[in-house]
UniProtKB/TrEMBL annotation:
Domain of life: Bacteria
Coiled coil (residue ranges): none
Protein name: Carboxypeptidase Q
Cited Pfam families: Peptidase_M28 (PF04389)
Signal sequence extent: 1-19
Keyword match Metal-binding: yes
Compartment(s): Endoplasmic reticulum; Golgi apparatus; Lysosome; Secreted
Subunit details: Homodimer. The monomeric form is inactive while the homodimer is active.
Domain Peptidase M28: start-end pairs: 265-451
Cellular component, GO annotation: extracellular region; lysosome
Protein keywords: Carboxypeptidase, Endoplasmic reticulum, Glycoprotein, Golgi apparatus, Hydrolase, Lysosome, Metal-binding, Metalloprotease, Protease, Secreted, Signal, Zinc, Zymogen
Length: 477
């Protein structure tokens, strides 16, 4: 696909950048937004017209490809990112992290024939962290549940069975409702005596496409083979089970859990001119699943934060505070990179004044979200007028943050986020179809512009965001 640009006439750009925002409460001493509008015009204009983020995404997806942590692809991505930062004139370095090395291997399944129906293949993908089956596979009768509570209520009836975790995901907001069935369901089934688990793919659309993802077994507890199954095959199994009589399947998975591997977070920095010790963090995860090429998840996020660093480096004067970009390793199946960063930088987390993570694809921006203390919105609103050029100049009621930022919550780091259109994100999420052609270059450029300006604003505004309250209980992924 050719690089597309999003060109605005200079008169319209200036009008949008200087437009008066809607009336809103403001602090008595308004921040010097006006003095920064020429910077906004340069940053937003370059992000919209140069196509640099798209070019980098093409390098990462078509060049490096899939990059599950522990793999050769992940190592290649680390070196690619380091070279790219240095080519852009951005100071960058590597920080070590030990990551898991899970390998997919063979995967196939079939519905076994009965007096009621003919046998047929089932489309499956092993879940990350799944155990292997014996070489000859595992055969068992299917029992369906729609919640972890329903699984618990079945008691002894789970023993020796293949548990099918069904659900009704239809829209992006449903992902949070049902994701625990994939991440925690197989382990719960194993404790109940199941021999294997199948999870209906977490998808908003399906053309017989299985969606993978991580499942988690605790150390020392039983592990069973676990796979995602297409929406179509999950619905078939559900109908057959509901009709009565035994429904049996055979599952063959050749997964391997290899020894941990040495890897790295890639860190880059634009040093602040006045308060370099205060840090605005921009994060995305460099790893992807081993299927597709991780264009939306999370190649788009990676190239957006990289482009923000490049464009900020080109400014004559750096922003007041340091902007630090972190490309985390192992978000998909472990969060080792996130934990390593928090441990390595523990002494300075109190000086992290804002953090953003991009991990919802390359869709267009639709607004700005905050997770901070009282009064944060009043400080940020005056800085949002430049984002009206990309229809993202308002605060929205939504959670800011991301999985790689979880270890920063105990330090009460304020979070900000560019909210994006995710209406089609879960169509290809964690599938072979997560490839460059699914990303719209114009939408990618618009979100890049929003991220770049917000990063500058957070680093430049006179006052930092008020910190949120400390969590009342321990946090976990």
């Amino acid at each position: 696909m050719p690089v597309a640009t999003f060109l605005l006439p200079s008169s319209l750009m200036l009008q949008l950048l200087t437009a008066t925002p809607p009336p809103a409460p403001a602090p008595k001493a308004a921040p010097p937004v006006a003095a920064s509008l020429p910077v906004a015009e340069r940053l937003v204009g370059a992000a919209l017209t140069e196509g640099h983020a798209w070019g980098r995404l093409e390098e990462l997806t078509d060049g490096v490809g899939a990059r599950l942590s522990g793999s050769e692809g992940a190592e290649a991505a680390v070196q690619w990112a380091l070279r790219a930062f240095k080519a852009d004139g951005v100071k960058a370095w590597l920080e070590p992290v030990k990551v898991p090395h899970w390998v997919r291997g063979e995967e196939r399944a079939e519905l076994l024939a009965s007096e009621r129906f003919r046998g047929r293949p089932l489309s499956v993908m092993a879940l990350g962290g799944s155990a292997a089956t014996p070489p000859e596979g595992i055969t068992g009768e299917v029992v369906e549940v729609r919640s972890l509570e329903e699984l618990s209520a079945l008691g002894e009836r789970v023993k020796g069975r293949v548990v099918l975790f069904g659900h009704t995901m239809q829209k992006p907001e449903d992902y949070g409702r049902f994701a625990a069935l994939r991440s925690r369901g197989p382990a719960a089934a194993a404790k109940a005596g199941a021999v294997a688990a199948l999870v209906r793919s977490l998808a908003t659309a399906s053309l017989a496409t299985p969606h993978t993802g991580a499942t988690r077994f605790e150390e020392g507890e039983p592990r069973i083979p676990a796979a995602s199954v297409t929406v179509e095959d999950a619905e078939l199994l559900s109908r057959l089970v509901a009709a009565g009589g035994p429904v049996r399947v055979k599952l063959v998975l050749g997964c391997q859990e290899l020894p941990d591997v040495d890897s790295f977070n890639v860190v880059a920095e634009v040093k602040g001119r006045e308060k370099p010790q205060e840090v605005v963090l921009l994060g995305a995860h460099l790893d992807s699943w081993d299927v597709g090429t991780g264009a939306h998840d999370d190649g788009a996020g990676v190239v957006m934060v990289m482009e923000a660093a490049r464009l900020l480096t080109k400014q004559k004067a750096a922003p007041r505070r340091t902007v630090r970009v972190v490309l985390f390793m192992n978000e998909e199946n472990g969060l080792r990179g996130a934990r390593a960063y928090a441990e390595t930088h523990a002494a300075e987390l109190s000086r992290h004044v804002a953090a953003l993570e991009l991990d919802v694809g390359g869709g267009r921006p639709v607004g700005v979200a905050l997770r901070a203390g009282p009064g944060a919105g009043d400080r940020v609103r005056p800085w949002l007028s430049p984002l009206r050029a990309v229809d993202a100049g308002t605060l929205v009621e939504a959670e800011a943050g991301g999985a790689d930022l979880l270890p920063l919550i105990p330090a009460q780091v304020p979070f900000f986020g560019v909210k994006q259109d995710v209406s089609r994100y879960f169509d290809v999420h964690h599938t072979h179809a997560d490839t460059l052609d699914k990303v719209d270059p114009v939408a990618l450029a618009q979100s890049t512009a929003a991220v770049t300006w917000l990063a500058y604003a957070m680093a430049e505004m006179p006052e930092t965001l008020p910190r949120p309250e400390a969590p009342s209980k321990p946090l976990g992924p």
